[in-house]
Each structure stands twice: as C-alpha cells, then as structure tokens.
Design a protein that fits this description.
The chain folds into 2 domains: 295 residues, no CATH class; 80 residues, no CATH class. Helices cover 70% and strands 0% of the residues. The protein has 16 helices and no strands. Helix 8 packs parallel to helix 10 and helix 15 runs antiparallel to helix 16. It starts with a helix and ends in a 6-residue tail after the last helix.
C-alpha cells in the first residue's frame, strides 16, 4: 500500500506542524501494529525483517512500559486510587511500544527519508516563528497558527528534533550529499530560532549542553590543547551572546529564586506563584513526601497541591494547580520511593545499553540519535515533566520504536 510507504516520513514532517499529529501518528502506528499481529502475512513479513522476535525485544518493551505498569500497581497503596489510575492512563502510550515497533518494522524504515522529513518540518516552523518574531514579537503559542501547542511542549519536541538534526548534520557519513547536509544544518539553526521564540530556559540550555557534547565528540580525534582552548573560547562567545539575548529571563529566574528562599513561610506566599518559585516549592514538597515514605512512596496519586501536611496548601486552589512535581526524578521518588526509583533507573540503564552502547560500533548514527533522544528527555525531565503530557510521551514511543526498528533491521548509515 502506498500509504504504508510514506507513513513514517509523513509523521516526521507533520508531528511539529499539525495540531494533534503526535497522537494521531502514534495511534496510526499502534493500529498498524495490531494489524501486523492479526494478519499472518503481515506478521511473517514484519518478523522476517528483524530476524524474529527476541528476548531483547521483550526486555526493551518492558523497560519502556515499566512507567505505566508501576503507576498502575501503585493504586494498591494510594490514598486516592482514582488519581493514581488517572496518572497511569496518561502513560498508557508506553505499553503500546511493542505494537509501534512492529509497525515501524513492517514499514521498512529509511533513516534518511525520515530525517529529511523531520528537517523540512522544523524549517517550516522555524520560518513561521522568524516571521512572527519580526512582525509581532514572541509568538502566542496558545493561540496557535497552523499548529496549536503549549510552548513548553513545543520547546521539548524541538529540543528532541534539533538534537537529531544536529547529530546528522555533523555526521562524517561520506554518502551524504551536500544538499542533504545543508538541509540538516539549516534545520538545526531553525531549532535555535524556535527555542528562542518559545522563551523557554530549560530547553535552550539543554540544547546548548547537547550541542557542546556533540561538538566535542565529533572532533575528539583532532583535538589538542590549542584546538581545545579555541573551541572552548568559541563556545564561551556563543554562550555569552545567547545569555545576553536572554538576560532578562535569567535575571528573572535569579530574582524569583531569591524571593522564594527569602520567605520562611512558603504557605500562600507570593513567591510560589512565580515560575521558579513554584518549581522550588514543588521540589520541596516532593522530597518531603519521599522522606516520609521512602520505600514505596505515596503512589501515582500524589500531587503537590494535595500535600497540606508539608505546608503545600498554597499550591492549591486559585494560586497554583499542577498534577506533577515538574521533575521526573522527584516525581519517581514521591510516587514510588526507593523501589520505583531503583526500577526506573534500571529500566533507563537497560534502554541506554540496548539502543546506545551496544549498537555504537556497527550502527553509529542510530546510536547517536538514541543518545540525542535520551539526553533530551533527561535534560528536560530534570526540571520539567518530560513524561507527563501526551505529546512528549507519544513522541518518545514513536521515535524510540523507529530507532529500535532501524537497529534491529541492521540498517547502517544514512
């Protein structure tokens, strides 16, 4: 079928541009995965492309699905089981990972095709943002244009996409032609434009960190003391220039943090209504919940505005209302204590081993793209909620399943 041939590039082109495309794409691949299981012909064709289903496929699926599974199990000790179930349902995308992987394998993914589609999508949104910035100032993402997305979620998705395109733009693959490399370079620059216009500190700092890591990795073979110092000086100039352009946002964050720490009584304080102050308060509440329930935590039903026993009443009602702690690591500790935090860490390590470390020698590009995916989610999840909202979760499932299909089919290069 012609639609199967172009389903993957169509997804990568549209997932940033079209409202609901992240979920629609995930749903399409999930349904296709069910078809691959139900149809003997499709199942045989899919499994033949990856050499059959193996134990490592099962373990990677479990590593990805573990978040949903644990959240659902935590209803057994939840004070409010309804909220724990609701939290788990938000992560239901993760248990469909095996189906999405089968769908990707059935589509016979082509890395270059997908990356070019991703590049064009990012260029389109970058151009729109540039015009909006020049004509109207910072775009109002909640109002939307041909897309409509929360600016924090958009910034996280652009962080992932930009990391991928940065990696492929700096690749030493000799088969890549000049036109393709130019396309990827322009798309990477557009990622900076979008991150600038979203006004998000976490994501553009994260992208800068990934850029530094990838930059040093790419030129590690030719580095000496002089070149290293020159590279550091260049990065410092870029960093200072970017900090100058965004100095008001950094100064605002600094002042909000000072305001938060200067007030001893945090309850109903104006300090916790600021972006930084609210995060610091949620971190404090999450850590307090973990220290009182260190083994199993307080279940997936725990929320920062439902912890008045720790002086968190000010986060509820009209002042502030969030269903998560704005940090995946604190979230894991508060929800599941040491048991879940350890399980979560093991799942991450196994995922890194299978998608980054083991394939690196034979499938370096796919391995580096997996690094970009994991690094983006870790950096965003350290100070935000990278696996809470539907768009990032759906994106993680599709992107990681796509990479695993590339790795398992032994496709190399671009």
């Amino acid at each position: 079928m012609i639609i199967i041939k172009f389903l993957i590039p169509l997804y990568f082109l549209c997932f940033l541009l079209v409202r609901g495309a992240t979920d629609a794409g995930w749903l399409a691949f999930t349904i296709l995965g069910i078809f691959c299981l139900a149809s003997p012909t499709a199942r045989a064709q899919t499994l033949a492309g990856i050499g059959g289903w193996t134990r490592q496929d099962t373990f990677v699926s479990l590593a990805v699905s573990s978040v949903f599974i644990f959240k659902l199990i935590s209803t057994l000790w939840a004070a409010t089981p309804r909220l724990a179930v609701a939290n788990a349902i938000w992560h239901i995308y993760l248990i469909t990972w095996p189906l999405v992987f089968l769908a990707m394998s059935y589509c016979k993914p082509k890395l270059n095709q997908a990356l070019q589609a991703l590049a064009w999508g990012l260029i389109l949104i970058g151009v729109w943002n540039m015009f909006a910035l020049l004509n109207e100032g910072i775009p109002q993402y909640h109002q939307g244009a041909f897309f409509n997305m929360n600016k924090g979620i958009l910034a996280e998705l652009v962080l992932i996409s930009g990391s991928w395109l940065l990696i492929v733009a700096t690749s030493d693959d000799q088969k890549m032609n000049r036109q393709s490399r130019f396309l990827f370079i322009v798309a990477t620059l557009c990622a900076w434009v979008v991150l600038y216009t979203t006004d998000r500190r976490t994501e553009w700092i994260g992208f800068f960190v990934i850029t530094v890591i990838i930059g040093f990795w790419r030129i590690r073979h030719v580095l000496n003391l002089t070149r290293s110092l020159a590279l550091l000086a260049g990065l410092m100039v870029i960093g200072v220039a970017f900090l100058y352009l965004r100095q008001e946002r950094l100064l605002l964050a600094y002042n909000e943090a000072l305001q938060y720490f200067s007030q001893a009584d945090k309850t109903n304080s104006i300090a916790i209504t600021t972006a930084v102050g609210a995060r610091l308060e949620m971190y404090r509440l999450g850590i307090s919940a973990f220290l009182d329930n260190p083994i199993l935590g307080m279940s997936a039903g725990v929320r920062p505005d439902l912890l008045p026993q720790y002086g968190g009443g000010g986060l509820g009602g009209d002042q502030f209302h969030h269903r998560h702690f704005h940090s995946e690591f604190i979230q894991a500790l508060a929800e599941g204590g040491i048991v879940w935090a350890t399980t979560f860490l093991i799942a991450i390590i196994y995922f890194i081993r299978k998608l980054i470390l083991e394939p690196f020698k034979t499938q370096g590009l796919a391995s580096m793209l997996a690094f970009g995916l994991v690094a983006s989610f870790i950096l965003a999840g350290s100070f935000s909620a990278s696996l809470i909202y539907n768009q990032p979760i759906a994106t993680f499932v599709v992107f990681s399943a796509f990479l695993w299909a590339i790795i398992r089919s032994n496709r190399t290069g671009i």
